[in-house]
Amino acid sequence: xxxxxxxxxxxxxxxxxxxxxxxxxxTLEEDIDKIPFWIIPKDTDPSxxxxxxxxxxxxxxxxxxxxxNIEKDDDEMKPLSDYYREVISKQMKPLPVLTTISTACSAxxxxxxxxxxxxxxxxxxPCLANCPKDAIEFINGKASIIQExxxxxxxxxxxxxxxxxLHRLVPCEGSCPVDAIKKNExxxxxxxYKKCISCGKCxxxxxxxxxxxxxxxxxxxxILQSKERTTAIIAPAIDGQFPGTLGQIKTAIKMVGFDDVVxxxxxxxxxxxxxxxxxxxxxxxxxxxxxxxxxxxYVEIIEKHLPxxxxxxxxxxxxxxxxxxxxxxxxxNTKIVFIGPCLAKRVEAVKLKTVDGVITFSELxxxxxxxxxxxxxxxxxxxxxxxxxxxxxxxxxxxxxxxxVIKRMEDPSIVKPYNIDGIDKKVxxxxxxxxxxxxxxxxxEVMVCDGGCINGPGTIVKPKIAMKLxxxxxxxITKAMKKERLY
Amino acid sequence: xxxKVKIKICVGTSCFVQGGSDLLLYNDxxxxxxxxxxxxxxxxxxxxxxxxxxxxxxxxxxxxxxxGDMTPEKLNKIVIEVYHARNK
Lengths: 487, 88
Ligand code: FES
Known about the structure:
The complex is a heterodimer. Chain A is an alpha/beta fold. Chain A contains 21 helices and 15 strands. Chain A has helices spanning 7-25, 28-31, 35-39, 51-66, 70-73, 80-89, 126-130, 155-159, 171-175, 201-205, 217-225, 246-256, 265-284, 296-304, 319-330, 345-352, 361-370, 400-407, 425-431, 463-469, 477-484, and strands at 98-100, 112-115, 136-139, 142-145, 165-168, 181-183, 189-191, 211-213, 230-234, 260-263, 290-291, 335-340, 357-360, 417-421, 443-447. In chain A, the strands form six sheets. A four-stranded parallel β-sheet of chain A has the order 10-9-12-13, with helices on both faces. Chain A has a three-stranded parallel β-sheet with strand order 11-15-14. Chain A has a two-stranded antiparallel sheet with strand order 1-8. In chain A, helix 1 (7-25) packs across helix 17 (361-370). The radius of gyration of chain A is 24 Å and the shape is globular. By secondary structure, chain B is α+β, with helices and mostly antiparallel strands. Chain B has one domain: Glutaredoxin. Chain B is 40% helix and 20% strand. Chain B has helices at 13-23, 26-29, 32-36, 72-86; strands at 5-10, 38-43, 60-62, 65-67. A four-stranded mixed β-sheet of chain B has the order 2-1-3-4. In chain B, a hairpin with a 2-residue loop joins strand 3 (60-62) and strand 4 (65-67). Chain A binds chain B through residues 5, 10, 13-14, 17, 242-243, 362, 365, 368-369, 373-377, 460-462, 464-465, 468, 477-478, 481-482, 485, 487, and chain B through 9, 11-14, 16-19, 21-22, 24-27, 39-45, 56. Residues 10, 12-15, 45-49, 57, 59 of chain B line the site of FE2/S2 (inorganic) cluster (FES).
């Protein structure tokens, strides 16, 4: 996966903030077609072939931000203002979450193992001896791979003493745990939505920005503009994403226009309590394994690929689902918007029906920028009595969920926990047989993103920084930096 | 006596979300000996992000001079330069 800070994410945040600024000023309809020119002015030094292509890419970013399914609805003749009018006048389908921009796709050739000049044509020839498919031949004393025979197992690369075997990758395909990325006849990227689990790994891997998320921020902006009460429910991973305390983040969110802000950690407490009960019950009745159920991409994996795992997945609801219930009980007329690091939560929200909108931390950040809200400068809001669910803020971090669940069991001694921290192709293969390998334990926490939600596709900062900013270190960030060198 | 290099890293929202957060890991990319010679602090938005004169966010102020488009590598380089220029 690409580093979180790269040219592409910077462009994205610039586009988001500019669009939102116009929206809040009430000038978006008239200005939207000018934004590509503002962002890529005449004298820009282009990274792509020319400024015209760069502007076209900005246009696509705007379309994605508007929530347009670019793959299906891209009409180059249509002005952005027309798209915008459509977006605010009719309900858009919230799914699929991801879409592709074929003009951005570089049509990378299939992944291949190649032998480079470093090959010395040695006498031992371990590549030849270790290739299970006889795909190595020697031409003029140097090794070469017969591509038709190669199964891309990588053995030759492992054994070459000169490190001369090169693996040319296709980043999007390589990052997709479930092989949902395909190439069409022209070689451009396509997503197989029957397989896609909305984890967003492909969009974070493509160095050309050819896979993008369709934002669902506009329906949320419309809710905010209506007179209806709106409650933001904020994922536990939010702590550490902004240079301020949770209390300050809460204030900043209210300044954007939300009437109330509730921590999803509150619902996570219910998840922990109920999952603890369920686990005890299941172990007692003889179940060999139970898995957590809070990661929506994992739930998608089960639904789309491994339905047999429904038997081991806990039936307990996710923190988002419980939080929405709590909020609706207290305030039946409020709309609910989930703010989190996750794209797959949108899929869950569509199923649940209690959550009216889902946006990411980076979208929230763009709102702050557009409204000139400096999180570090705002007053701290009262978080209320967080005592009972404080530990559940750890749901955002790998191993946090299982810790909270086990803590709430009557007899923790009966549980043997382990965790799956991130799912890639290899781990996905292992998942297929997970119910057959009970020896590892009887309770497994599953997170599709490595490190947990703090490494989700909607995050702003690196997990390492988020971890340092969490744990209350956010307080007095300036002083802390200076005195204790916390960073 | 060595003069300390004053480094102010902007942690305003614009800077922070556009790569400024990475700069907070300065212990990972600036030589500890140089860090000893620096006064590093996080500051609030000082409005550099609203204009165009100094490039784009993230911004850092080094001895009161504003630098834009800051990256860890660039910061390290400038700090070393400034430090050596001062203590020649
Ligand atoms: S946020 Fe850094 S200068 Fe404005």
